[in-house]
Amino acid sequence: MKKLLSILVLLTIIITQATAQATEVRKKEYNLEKAGLAIQGYDPVAYFVSNKAIEGKKDITTVYNGVTYQFASTQNRDAFKANPAKYEPQYGGWCAYAMGAKGEKVEIDPETFKIVDGKLFLFYNKYFNNTLKSWNKDEANLHAHADKNWMKFVH
To answer: How many domains does the chain have?
Structure first.
């Protein structure tokens, strides 16, 4: 019994340390405002259920691994809590095109997005440069490169 208890305590310590490390990586590498707010306050679930970018409300939030998300409704917040990985933006919320093309973290326009294989991708769209258009021209290649490039930041 003592051996089992020792193993459980050790596992708890390891899991706690891993979670703390993941939280620190997210705070450092993700596209967050100073207060740790993701997607400039836009509701990550709305992209999926409404197929449009909708600003979240300051009083409907949740924190997931150190990152704060705002939601347009409590239903969206509850859906996120049930499956955060389904709704979080890819590449820490940075521009998917820039991550694929150059491995760079570039700001986004939260209203320029695309859902690909059930995942949310965000894009830069300012000064006559809508990177979603460039992404669409070579999506498979850029997606593969972005996945690889993002690993440099989170591992």
So the answer is: 2
